[in-house]
Amino acid sequence: MRAPSTCLTSQEKRNIAKARFRPKPVPQAPKNNINGMIRVPEVRLIDHDGEQRGVVETSVAIQMAIDAGADLVEVAPNAEPPVCKIMDYGKFLYQQSKREKAAKARQHTITVKSIRMTPMINGHDLETKVEHTREFLGEGNKVKVFVMFRGRMITHKELGFATLEKVIELLGDTATVEQAPIMEGPRNLSMLLSPGKKKSTHEASE
Q1: Domains identified in the chain and CATH numbers
Q2: Quick one: which of 15, 47, 87, 205 has the most CB atoms within 10 Å?
């Protein structure tokens, strides 16, 4: 006799529903064909000492790998016949993973930071903004410097260009002007800096 559904709590019913529709994990296949996965009758063999052993029957190569306490790994599947090497495949994958992680660690994701100021910024605040810009550049980032014109300041755009020229001067060789100052919209003047040797706004616009 089937037990009535009231014997289950609401939480148990939810757990059953989740289990019913939860996708089963799919096991990951090896990146290379190894051992019995190698279906061709013959392979060009490299033994565990790195020595070329010529073309041998696949079954013989697999047995040689077993005798060496290692695996037969297909390293060049498109060759004729495929090239296989006797190695510790688990160790090989571990070392490959370490190399990939080291390569990722060396990569730096370049981001664009923003620095904003007005054309009437005082000397102390300008130096603070420049210091923040220098820090961003030192981390390998690009920096977009904005001069924002408020109210009647828009009638004195030359002050904004002079402010950005002063920023370039203070940064010295730590910055390269990747994009010369241009107006973005009616009230924003901007330039894009990247790490490196500086250029004047005249050089950058040529």
Answers
A1: 35-105 (3.10.20.80), 112-205 (3.30.110.10)
A2: 87
CA distances from 196 to 37, 77, 137, 172, 193 (A): 52, 45, 8, 9, 9
Confidence tier at 14 by pLDDT (50, 70, 90): low
* Residue 40 Rama label (left phi>0; alpha psi -120 to 50; beta): beta
Rounded Cα distance between 72 and 185, Å, is 64
Phi and psi at residue 123, in whole multiples of 5°? -60, -45
Strand, coil or helix: 144: strand
Query: What pTM, to 2 d.p., does this model score?
Result: 0.46
Tell me what pLDDT residue 204 has.
45
Spatial separation of the C-alpha atoms in residues 95 and 90, rounded to whole Å = 9
Nearest to 191 by CA among 206, 204, 178, 181: 181
Average pLDDT score over residue span 110-117: 89
Tally of CA atoms within 13 A in the half-sphere of 31 that contains its CB: 9
DSSP, collapsed to helix, strand or coil, labels residue 48 as: coil
Residue 145 has pLDDT above 70, yes or no: yes
